[in-house]
Amino acid sequence: MLNVTIWNEFVHEKIHDEVKAVYPEGIHKVLADGLSDPEFNIRTATLDEPEHGLTDEVLNSTDVLLWWGHMAHDRVEDVIVNKVVKRVQEGMGLIVLHSGHFSKPFKALMGTSCDLKWREAGEQEILWSVNPTHPIMAGVNSQIILEHEEMYGEFFDIPAPDELIFVSNFEGGEVFRSGCTFKRGQGNIFYFRPGHETYPTYYNPEIIKVISNGIRWAALNALTVKPVFGNSQPVRSLRVLV
Questions:
Q1: How far is residue 148's CA from residue 237's CA, in Å, rounded to a whole number?
Q2: Beta bridge pairs of residue 70
Q3: What residues pair up with 93 in beta bridges, in sequence order?
Q4: What is the pLDDT of residues 150-160, one digit of tens each?
Q5: Could you tell me the CA-to-CA distances from 179 to 15, 111, 235 in Å, in that order?
Q6: What is the Cα–Cα distance from 83 to 114, expressed in whole angstroms?
Q7: Would you say 66 and 202 are in contact if contact means Cβ atoms under 8 Å apart?
């Protein structure tokens, strides 16, 4: 059983009618429902909860953390950001969705601005698999077509990904690295681009399948034996010099 925490700032859905119409109970609720699986123990957390819902107890028992944020990145307290970064470095998996590219934890883990080009015009997006044998692609079509999405375009200011899973192209001609993996410390990170708040992207079963596979992949290091640091005794007895 994997302990999965879905974090959503849950701000747009409360104040913008066009977002509320798509995600009336919040993006986190739709993700939790779509990702429901006997292998996953899912809980949700939001910005306005004490400690943003990410208490020590929650973080220490989370195998994989999903992160969606957009208009309230600056409201996430640095003390919580530092705890998330530490847990990733210790082996907790992290899946960063859509505009979470600009979240404090992702920027801290990448060490770059994570900036990009964008345009909200309801354009078609085609996600092309460029790594079809990767575990994240298990049971997923080699191309996923989203009729309406926000455009993200290069240059995307991130470090070179360890693995590139998806590249997107948009009607306006832009391309974008839409599925990227990284490792920081012992933790696996998967950035997955789709998911603008005014489009029903997270109701798409193919998108949910990718995220579900991403959870399993990101959890691999969370479930392994952690390295031991510090003073070490010799493996063999020291020779006695005569």
A1: 67
A2: none
A3: 64
A4: 999 999 999 99
A5: 30, 18, 42
A6: 20
A7: no
User: Do residues 116 and 152 lie in contact, with contact meaning Cβ atoms separated by under 8 Å?
Assistant: yes
Written as six digits, the tokens of 163 are 């693995």
**210 contacts: CB under 8 Å, gap ≥ 6:** 136, 137, 140, 144, 179, 192
Tell me how far apart the alpha carbons of residues 14 and 40 are, in angstroms, rounded to a whole number.
Answer: 27
The structure's pTM equals 0.94
Can you read off the two tokens belonging to residue 177?
């690295």
Write the pLDDT tens digit of every residue in 153-190.
Answer: 999 999 999 999 999 999 999 999 999 999 999 999 99
Contact 61, 3 (CB under 8 A): yes
Peptide bond into 155 cis (omega under 30): yes
**Number of residues that make up the chain:** 242
Q: What is the pLDDT of residue 208?
A: 98
Distance of CA 26 to CAs 6, 54, 93, 162, Å? 11, 18, 23, 32
What Cα–Cα distance (Å) separates residue 21 from each residue in 12, 16, 24, 27, 75? 11, 9, 6, 11, 25
Structure tokens at 66: 């999903």
Which regions of the chain does DSSP assign to beta strands (E)?
A: 2-8, 40-46, 64-68, 93-97, 117-129, 143-153, 163-170, 175-184, 187-192
Closest CA to 162 of 180, 145, 178: 180
Which residue type is seen at 125? E
